[in-house]
Structures
1.
Amino acid sequence: MAINMCVTYYPLIFYSRLAGKNGRYLFIVPAIFGLPVYLARILSPFYLDFPTEDFKYFAIALASDNVHGMAQVLTILLIYRLLSREKISRFYNNTIFSIDLTNKRKRQLLILMGIFLMILALGALITLASVSGFGVGNWISYPRIGYQEYRRGNGHYWVLAQVLLSISAILLLLTSRTKFKFIIYALSNGGIWWFLGSKAFLIGFGAFATAMWFYKFGKNYFLLGLMIIMIFLLMIANWLLNTELQVSLGDFSQILEYFDMYQVGIMYYKEYYADQIKLFYGDVYLSSFWSYVPRALYEDKPWVYGIYLIVDRFFPGGPESGNTPGFAGSVEQFADFGYAGLLVAPLLDLTFLMRTAAIILICRALRDGTWRNGRMFLLSIFFMAPNWTPWAGGLYLIGLLFLVIFIFLCLNLWGRKTRVPEIIAYKLFSSK
């Protein structure tokens, strides 16, 4: 377990030291927020009274996580080494966009964009609730049921809401100049995250909002503790109020079971070592590229692909319903080639490689003193926004990248050719 904690938190410590004082809170605060969930997950066999025979497979699942985690750490260090070359650093520093938030009109334009994207995200969520057949009223009352059971065939609206809302949160919180505006933006944006129905979003947004408060207004450990308590109470409320289960708040074990994923991982390793399930020899990895294809554009897109090949075996119909449990024990990476797959998986994970490279480049720029608010924006995008949706496929990241590029083009190219966007923002936000 000590090894698992080291490989889990080492990347965050590495990035925080690399970013220096300007960006370290974006890594330290999420690490603190995630610690209670991590401990609940890693200690689950002891407080959930796993059968004695399951501890053997828990140890195997934990060892698989450790091997995969160490492979990720080595990949991060390799990418850092490659990106430390002088030519790459010079190319990055000469070509990166920047956002000057000291420019009042551009800051107002970013606020306008943030509000507009938040409205669009709300529209995407309302559209999802309407076309799913669940209804807007039911979705408001039971967002978790809507998220789990009524996204089928309309997941692109859900992904669109995530992309728009995550960029909106970053724009609004990064550009707010007073504590009052920061709180208003955080409450309005965070309220919409609740209706997406996922507990991971609540942790991610709470961590990001707290980290941005530390960055803009200084450290506040009382706020940190208060936010952690509030977010976890909201997570439990999200589960208790939006499921059909009748659970007593006094039944603490059932609440803790909510955070466990090792029971499902144990199921897989039991069958694997009993020769009841074979390796997939690349099918899981190759079929995962279906995540880049929106079902709205290709209706014949399969329901069972990637990790869902395994989910469907243990929970038939789960992938089609959209209600899929998580597998601890690095099952997705193990399923194709066993322990060899755990070692090479980080080198084949395009999302992991892209995020790692982006974070390292931006952190080095912060540390070296070439500080720009634009780099803080990029760091927020590549680390925090995908962190809210760790299971999201390529479609999410493609939308995220296009939206980021569009924002930079608006601020840099439009500002040179025409002042219309800036004039609109100035008229809307000017006190005169």
2.
Amino acid sequence: MNQFTTLSEAQDFVGNVVDVPIEARSEAIRPGLVLNSSSIDLGGGRFTNSYDLVFRGEDVQAEIVAFDHLMSAHDFARSSPQHTAVSSGGFFYLADRASASPRQLALNLSISGGDLRSLPVSDRESIVVERGVMGARTVAALGSLLEREPTELVWFSDPLRH
């Protein structure tokens, strides 16, 4: 992790290391898995870099892994050589001190390894993996859960919508 003592140090790092346009390229990582990278011009000297991982379900086994602690995609990839490609998702968390951490790691629907980590807080598209095939589906932020004990928990995100 990089730590900076001044704002100008952080700006210098981002400007020289992170915030640079990339050359467009397409790379076959393995059969059925291709990484397409390019820089998109936003006008006025602004840009964003785009990375698109494309795979055929029959050639690649997809998996969603969620953690109950902070984990970087880089650290996960280094510790899990059986995964050919790793991507991260979630939300950005900025803190004044490196020791600070968010109160909740998932802010919408999160299920991993059969464990429910977080309920949906808004109606939106979610990434799902069923029998190794990744896709997307819209999930409504309402429903009920039945625990092993006869207790029912009901939740909804917006009482005016649901």
3.
Amino acid sequence: MPTVANFELFRDPTITLQLESNPRMRIQADISFVPALDEGILLTWVARCLDSGSVIYRILVNGNEGQGGYTLDAGSWSSMQEVFCTDSIRQGTNDILFEVGGGTASLRISDVVLFYRQNLCLV
């Protein structure tokens, strides 16, 4: 069965997270096609550490945690990516959670995009 690469833009605008006041950002997004099995999915985002100090955060996709925590130091920003198992994502509504778990700085997240492959049914 042929497959094709596809992507979903989950969030483009920035949001700022901070341990004390706004530690979580939950994104719910729909995927209308079933991802190809055993292909994995790639989640990308831009993360920036604001203020002085550092920030520690993690990501969950439908309750499945990625590689663990990420740490950014003052003034740094990165374009990040992480591969999740295919069964971490599903057809229909998906829940992506960014959560600050430590540090004194603020975290700015933007440009959250999911890349995946889908099976094509040719008739």
